[in-house]
Amino acid sequence: MVRPLPERYLTPVDLADLVGVPVETVYQWRRKGTGPRGFRVGRHLRFDPEDVRRWIADLMEEVA
User: Could you list the mean pLDDT of each consecutive 10-residue stretch along the chain, which spans 64 residues?
Assistant: First the structure.
């Protein structure tokens, strides 16, 4: 079952909940450059739902 993404920008907590990983993993992906593209709004990290969708699709293609 496909879970719809929210229409708003995602926080690291939102992303972690979405993919079922600890929040620290999201920050590790960011440091390593392996996660979805994120951006800062002041000191707050946010992710565009479309970038997250593309990142997940790319991961699924790699496995296939």
Answer: 75 96 97 96 95 94 86
Q: How many CB atoms lie within 10 A of CB 2?
A: 4
pTM for the model? 0.85
Alpha helices, DSSP H, located in the chain? 12-19, 23-32, 49-63
Residue 11 burial by Cβ neighbours in a 10 Å radius (0-12, 13-18, 19+)? middle
The residue whose two tokens read 């707050």 is 44
Those residues whose C-beta lies under 8 Å from the C-beta of residue 60, and which sit 6 or more positions away, are: none
User: Which of 14, 21, 51 shows the shortest CA–CA distance to 36?
Assistant: 51
